[in-house]
Amino acid sequence: VTAIGSRELATAIEPMLAKVIADLDRARALARAATGKLFETFEALRVHLDHERTMYAEAIAAITGGAGDAGMVGVLREVLTQFVSDVTRIGQASVTIMLEIENLRAHADDVTARSGRIQSIAHTTRVISLNSRIEAHRLGSVGAVFRVVADEIKTLANESREVSQGIRDAIAKQSAALGATTAAVEALSAVDLDVAVSSSRRLEATIARLEAVGETSGRALAQIQADVEAAIQALQFEDMLDQLLGGIRGKLDAVRGICEESRTGDVAGFHARIASASHEVTRDVVTQHDVAAGSVELF
Amino acid sequence: MIRISSNEGTTTIHVDGRFDYRCVAQFRAALDTGARTWHVDLAQASYVDSAGLGMLLLLRERVGNDAARVRLHGAKGQILDVLMMAKFDRLFALDTARDLRP
Fold it and tell me: Which run of H or of E encompasses A125?
C-alpha cells in the first residue's frame, strides 16, 4: 500500500464501493417491494378465508339449525312428524268407519231377516185367503161374505209381499253402496308409512354426512388460515433483512470514510477512521440468524 | 292376520304377517271380548300401515287412553321403525324385540 500510495488506492476503491452501495440500496428496495406485495397478498387471503369460514358456518347453521332456529332440517323433521301424525289419525278414522259399516251391515242383515219373516207371513196369509175362497165357494150364496174377506186378505198378503220385496231391494242397494264405501275407506286407510321412515333415515344420514363434511372443511380452512398467519408472521423477516442490509451499508460507508480520509493527508485522522471503521465492520447488525415464525428479533 | 287369546281379563292380539285393513273384522271380534288390559304381540308381524296404527289407537281409546293397559310386544324391523316414527312409544307400553332378548 505504501508503494502504490494510499490516495491512489482510495481513489480506485471508492467508486467501486459507491457502486456496491448503490446495488445494495437497490436490493433493499426490491426486497421491501417484494415482501410488501407478499404481505398484502397474504393479508387479503386471510380476510378472504375469514369471510369463507363465516359464510360456511352460516350456511351449515341455516341447514342444521342453531340457537333458536330449527333450520331446514328441523322444518323437514316437523313436516315428516306431522305427516305421520295426520296419516295415523286418518287410519284411526278409517278403521272407525269400517267398524261402523260392519255395524250397518249387521243391521241390514237383521232387517233382511225380518223382511223374510214378513214374506213368510204374506205367504201364509195367501194360503189362508185361498182356503177361505174354497170354503166360500163350497158354502155357495151363504159363503159370499167369506169370499169378500178372502179377497181382502189376498190383497193384504200381496201388499205385504211387495213391501217385503221393496225392503229387500232397498237393503240390497244399501249393501252395494256400503261395499263401495268400504273399498274407498280401505284404500284411504292403507297409507304406507315406509316412505316417511326411509325419508327420515335419509334425512338423518344427510345431516351426519353434512356435519362430517363441515367438520373436515372447517379443519382444512382453519389449517389454511393458520398457515397464512404463519406466512404473514414470517414475512416480518423483511424488517430483519432490511436492518441487515442497512448494517452492511453502514460498514461500506465506514470503509468509504477511510478512503475519503486518506485523501486529506491527516495521518492521525486516517488511523482514527480505520479504528472506527474496524469497530463498525466487526459489529453484529442482527442478533437473530434465521426466521423462526413468530419470534423475529429486531434491534 | 289376527289371532285372539284371552286369559284372566287380558286379551292378547297375535298379529301374523301384515297388520292392515284386512285385519279390521278380526279386530272387531277382539274388541267384543271387553278385556280390561290388552297385549298386542307383534313378533310375527311383518308390516304395518296407517290402518294398523289406527286399530292400535282405537284399542287405546277403548281403555280410556291409559297407556299402561295396552302393551305392545316384540316389534322389530319395519314395525318398530313405523311405531317409533309415529311416537307410539309415548302412547303405549312398548316392549321391543330387543327388550325381550335374554
Answer: helix A71-139
For residue B78, what is the nearest residue in chain A, using CA coordinates? A194
Q: Report CB contact under 8 Å: B58, A92.
A: yes
User: Nearest chain A Cα to B85, which residue?
Assistant: A197
Instruction: Give me the sheet containing B10-19, strands edge to edge.
Output: B2-7, B10-19, B37-48, B70-75, B93-96
Q: Using an 8 Å Cβ cutoff, are B97 and B43 in contact? A: yes
Query: Cα(A120)–Cα(A172) distance, rounded to whole angstroms?
Result: 19
Please tell me the pTM assigned to this model. 0.69
**A185 min Cα distance to partner chain B (Å):** 9
Instruction: Taking the CA atoms of A24, A28, A30 and A31 in sequence, report the sign of the dihedral they define.
Output: positive
Please name the helix (run of DSSP H) or strand (run of DSSP E) that holds residue B69, with its range, or none. Answer: none
CA dist., res. A75 & res. A64, Å (int): 10
Can you tell me the distance from the alpha carbon of B51 to that of B86, in angstroms, rounded to the nearest whole number? 13
Reading the block at residue A276, the C-alpha cell is 472506527
Q: Judge contact between A274 and A213, C-beta under 8 A.
A: no
pLDDT digits (tens, 9 = 90+) for A213-255: 888 888 888 888 888 888 878 777 777 788 888 889 999 999 9
Nearest to A192 among B49, B86, B87 (CB): B49
Phi, psi (degrees; rounded to nearest 5) at A65: 95, 160
B40 part of contact set with chain A, CB < 8 Å:
no
Residues from chain A that touch B20, judged by Cβ atoms under 8 A, are: 189-190
Q: A107 to each of A62, A104, A110, A180, B99, how far by Cα in Å?
A: 59, 5, 5, 18, 45
**Integer angstrom CA distances of residue B26 from A102, A120, B23:** 11, 34, 5
User: Closest by alpha carbon to A254, among A273, A227, A241?
Assistant: A273
- Interface predicted TM-score (ipTM) of this complex, two decimals: 0.90
- Asked whether residue A299 carries a pLDDT value surpassing 50, the answer given is no
